[in-house]
Write a structure and sequence with these properties.
This protein has about 350 residues and is mainly α. It has helices spanning about 1-25, 30-40, 55-65, 70-80, 80-90, 95-120, 120-125, 140-160, 165-185, 195, 200-215, 220-240, 245-250, 255, 260-280, 285-310, 320-340. The protein folds into 2 domains: about 60-215, Tetracycline Repressor, domain 2 (Orthogonal Bundle), CATH 1.10.357.140; about 215-343, Four Helix Bundle (Hemerythrin (Met), subunit A), CATH 1.20.120.1780. Helix content is about 80%, strand content about 0%.
Amino acid sequence: MGPLLVWGSRRHAVDNKYDEQRTNEQSPWRGARTIVTTLLEAPSENQTPPARPLRSALGVVNAYIALTKPRVIELLLVSTVPVMFLAEGGMPSPWLVLATLFGGALAAGSANALNCYIDRDIDEVMSRTARRPLPRHSVSPRSAFVFGMVLGVISVSFLALTTTVLAAVLALAAIAFYVVIYTMILKRRTPQNIVWGGAAGCMPVLIGWSAVTGGLDWPPLILFGVIFLWTPPHYWPLAMKFKNDYARAGVPMLPVVATPEQVSRQIIIYSWLMVACSLLLWPWTGWIYGASALILGGWFLLEAHRLHRRVSSGEKFAPMGLFHRSITYLTLLFAAVAVQALL
């Protein structure tokens, strides 16, 4: 009975629908009703289209912010303030610190945006970078280029007006080096690309020192060397994890052209040189910095050797562990510089 009742109700519904449709077709009002309905549903010529959702505008803003690579900027600025404390021998003018940070952030954002513009072809084929604004077409290449150039002009002009001319010149040199020397020349041509290209990331210590003193001295040059030697142990573990990405994009990162054991051996060499260079600053600081440099350096060397041991023995290894520890190392080392300068 159940199936018969269901079948009967369905047939009744179909019959009613057929009768209603036949009545509508025969009704003299059918044409008029259609016209009225069309007029009522049609948008008026003077009707204002709905406003674009706020999230669309925020999406554009976020896309431009993403072009500047904010996380990279944060890491660069970590080294600027402690060096300014060291140059001043205490707390410099808050206005000078803010002006230097703002100008430095704009300079780094300019270099990163222009880097995204130049590398947009390889960013599209790398899974790590495929969600950047240019591969996703959130920003046009022309807009990214103009944005990067405008940031560069503003940053250099701002630093020249609010800090020192030398700081502005160094910021301009950092932008040019990162964009031309690293991105356009070294990156796609040599496995040592990030070694020499890393010099651009060392410039904030020189900019911070020159913003306070108007010149340069051995302490910022030593810290320049620390960051220069820190860059390979920091970046090569990341390249080890994404070596297939770089290979697909045709970028000859060291992990692409060398064995994992060769890469980890190079990481150890640069790590030892980095720790040795960090100890050279001891005479210009004090026991707090010296002890911190020894402890942090020993810890980082232990982690670098641990990675090399696992790679050499054929064990499963996680290179990103050293990548994250390198950030911790540099942050704490420069924190020690700041603390020592304030005491």
